[in-house]
Amino acid sequence: MFITNILLKKAKSKNILVLMESAVSGHQFTMVRERLADKLELQRFDPYIQRMSLYRERKRLRSLN
């Protein structure tokens, strides 16, 4: 491997953008989390059903700087 290949490699970003989806109604929003962290699960107000609902990480969308 040449030294130029080592210098030109991109570093992986620390954060990623993920899609969160409600387990009840399917409402979605995006959130930022660290790349090495576990998948997110949180309770948040769901505007479709006007109540608190469980949101789970659905998929990774992109890397952030």
From TrEMBL:
Keywords: Mitochondrion, Ribonucleoprotein, Ribosomal protein, Transit peptide. Its main location: mitochondrion. InterPro entries: Mitoribosomal_protein_bL33, Ribosomal_bL33_sf, Ribosomal_zn-bd. It is found in: Mitochondrion. GO terms for cellular component: mitochondrion; ribonucleoprotein complex; ribosome. The keyword Transit peptide applies. GO terms for biological process: translation. Belongs to the bacterial ribosomal protein bL33 family. Component of the mitochondrial ribosome large subunit (39S) which comprises a 16S rRNA and about 50 distinct proteins. This is Large ribosomal subunit protein bL33m.
